[in-house]
Automatic annotation (TrEMBL):
It comes from the Bacteria. The chain crosses the membrane at residues 12-31. Keywords: Membrane, Transmembrane, Transmembrane helix. Pfam families: DUF4430. Residues 68-131 form the Transcobalamin-like C-terminal domain. This is DUF4430 domain-containing protein. InterPro entries: Transcobalamin-like_C (IPR027954).
Length: 135
């Protein structure tokens, strides 16, 4: 056996050990990382109906955007538009466009400047949909 072959054996063994350790590390990480079934982000959605009655939902999600999280929780429905989801129904209450009703989204007490599809879910965030009358 040549000297070159003898010098390569430890390198090959080291490479194999390295690959095995990396694979083992990935497997251990996949097994131990939380699966997020409850959701990593806790947030609150308050729904205010036409009579001013408030319903508070304490929710958890792993979703990045509020629209997807609320659709997954079956709390909103709407129509897709060029600007994203136009929310027409919240918590089973449908806005009546004939009466100029619409759902106003507020985030931590301030009117949202983004649509529900482009509003990130923040851990501890407070979101509110208020049934509003008049355009």
């Amino acid at each position: 056996m040549s000297t070159k072959t003898k010098n390569q054996k430890p390198l090959i063994i080291a490479a194999i050990v390295f690959v095995v350790l990396v694979v083992a590390g990935v497997v251990i990480w996949q097994v131990t990382v939380p699966k997020g079934t409850a959701g990593a982000k806790a947030y609150t959605l308050t729904v205010v109906d036409a009579d001013g009655k408030e319903t508070v939902h304490n929710l958890n999600t792993d979703e990045e955007m509020l629209g997807t999280a609320l659709q997954d929780a079956d709390l909103i429905e709407g129509e897709e538009s060029e600007y994203g989801l136009f929310v027409t129904k919240v918590d089973g209450i449908e806005a009546d466009s004939a009466n100029q009703e619409w759902w106003c989204l507020t985030i931590n007490g301030e009117m949202a400047s983004t649509g529900v599809d482009s509003t990130p879910v923040e851990d501890g965030g407070k979101y509110e949909f208020t049934l509003t009358v008049g355009y």
